[in-house]
Amino acid sequence: MRKKSKRFKLHLPRWKVITLYLMAYDALAVSGAYFAALLLRFDLQYSAIPKEYLYSYLGFVPIYTVFCLFLFFKFKLYQSIWKYASVTEATRVVAVSLISTIFQIVGITLLFRRMPISYYIFGSLFQFALVSAVRFVERFVQWERSKRSTAYSSLDTAAGILLIGAGEAGRMILQDIQRSKLAKNGRVRAIIDDDPQKWNRTISGVPVVGGRDEILAAVKKYNVNKIYFAIPAASAETKRDILNICKETQCKIKVLPGLYQLVNDEISVQSLKDVSVEDLLGREPITMDMSDVFKFITGKTILVTGGGGSIGSELCRQIAAHQPKQLLIFDMYENNAYDIEQELKRKYPNLNLKAIIGSVRDSKRIARVFETYKPEVVYHAAAHKHVPLMEGSPCEAVKNNAIGTYKTAYAAMKNGCQRFVLISTDKAVNPTNIMGATKRLCEMIVQTFDYMIKHHRENELPLLHAHMRDELSFMEKKAQEIHSQTQFVAVRFGNVLGSNGSVIPLFKRQMEEGGPLTVTHPDVIRYFMTIPEAVSLVLKASVMGKGSEIFVLDMGSPVKIDTLARNLIKLAGLRPGVDIKITYTGLRPGEKLYEEKLMAEEGLTRTENDLIHIGRPIPFDNDTFLKDVKLLMNASYSEQEESIRALVAKTVNTYHPAEQTTGANKDLKMKEKELIFS
Fold it and tell me: Is the pLDDT reported for residue 453 higher than 90?
């Protein structure tokens, strides 16, 4: 019976099979390259090659071939995935070619004889070309296909990208798109640049089609649905003007945040961010020399009340970066305090940091904090700031804003604090709402404290405690003489973009929900600044102030809230009134159509910084004011909501309560929940 023979099959991975074929090819390539060079030397006539040259070649070629294959293994030319070959692989091929050429020249000359010069030169060139070609041919084909698809992109129906900026940043963004998989989601179809010298030229096959005036035409011609703004050095005005054109295209817009990324070679598609409304304000960011501020901060114990809020937390961040002796975060909301505490602990593990939970309304608590830690500088950011909510709870506004500021200022004065900086608002100017009026009370409180100290009357400042037991517990301390040199200043600015409760986060949430965006009135205007700008001013005031000043930042031109809402919709590539509705709800109780930075009678005094001004204090009788503050405290803690506004108006003579803005709301009755096209 015939036995069946067993057959053994050798199963190798595909890449190993390819390696064997590649080795065979390399053996032929390195040997054939120098034979071709020898043949070329003698006019491609084999019979014309002298026998001594031919025998030398044939004798050395086996040695040379084995050496080259060994060299290729050492340089990992059989381990690379050549489909993804890059500069690293190309460098290895060049290195191998140089080493093998040297070996060829030295080896054949010493072992056999000196060959013609052209043999060495052309042999090495032929070898390099043959070895490189087989390895990079697939990579080259991929690159050529990408290049052609870019060149003919105007005929493609895929998503297109319009790149604004033909400078270095734009070039880096373009190359990042072309060499990455991002091209599957869109390709750069055209480039915009205001420099006429670049028009009608190309960058990596993409045409520069003109300046900003060509944006709308280019979007339509090249089927563009994304716009990338890549001019990091552009001024705020230039950026605003170009982006205002872009937002009319219904394209998704992204921008390169800053020039620092170009300096640090961090330019990529991932570094682009969505356009923010801040980019459309058209105002150069406020920059100041902060060296004196940080020198002042270093080595001091600093207290930030309301340290978990938008302004307070940014104050803590900037202070923590400049080596304070101790940073105290004081806030009544434990979640906010916890968040900023954990953030600072991660960033600054060596920071002497203490988060303290408490309210500025609590006399004992705030007094104990000052007595225990002895802060040298206080940034008082704790306040109720929501206008409509405070209109419904006026006693709470007085307790927290006015009385809380008084108690904090008194504790600072009594415990030898050097500087007390109050964070105020433009709503304190000619206020029509209780929140603004209480912030004006805060300004008057710090001005009164500064006046009493400068006139050596600090011991006449009364202790404010709402309950008799608190009064009695502090009577013994009241008898102690106070000799204070605390300087009190206030800082006044407008709305802060991105802060808790501000209009931009509200609009973004409404956008995510599909709209509508709610605007109180089509003519409402506000001054805006960024959180870092606001904090820079607060910090600057802490070193510029001599006492009693109200610092005011030049915030540029005011902005219509309705315009902000429309721009936000357009920046998302949507159409106001079509994709996202805008509704007008009417002015809320206490709201004004516009906010003022200064009262007319205050006037302005310039400082060494052109962007910072000082409002001249409005005179008032300090003794009468202190009596009124006592009455306000008693009324607020007695919950006398019916009379509290009248008492505030008596104390703040610029406060004129709005009559629930009935006139403005009446005009909007027919417009509510209806889009008004601009």
Answer: yes
**Which 8-state DSSP code applies to residue 300?**
-
Q: What Å distances lie between residue 338 and 125, 184, 327, 372, 502, CA to CA?
A: 68, 43, 14, 21, 22
Domain limits, the chain: 14-149, 154-275, 291-498+528-557+600-658
Neighbours of 672 (CB within 10 A): 12
In single-letter form, the type of residue at position 524 comes to V
Measured CA to CA, the distance from residue 269 to residue 283 in angstroms comes to 26
Element holding 529 (H helix, E strand):
strand 528-530
Question: Looking at the domain 291-498+528-557+600-658, which fold is it?
Answer: Rossmann fold (3.40.50)
Mode of pairing for the β-strands spanning 525-526 and 604-606: unpaired
> What is the pTM (predicted TM-score) of this model?
0.63
The pLDDT tens digits of the residues spanning 617-632 come to: 788 999 999 999 999 9
Alpha-carbon span 190 to 158, nearest angstrom: 14
Interatomic CA distance for residues 412 and 374, integer angstroms: 8
> What string of DSSP letters covers 325-344?
SEEEEEES-HHHHHHHHHHH
Q: What is the pLDDT of residues 546-565, one digit of tens each?
A: 887 888 876 666 778 888 88
CATH topology agreement for domains 154-275 and 291-498+528-557+600-658: yes
Locate 506 and state its tokens.
Answer: 């509200």
CA atoms within 13 A on the CB side of 369: 32
CATH superfamily of 154-275: NAD(P)-binding Rossmann-like Domain (3.40.50.720)
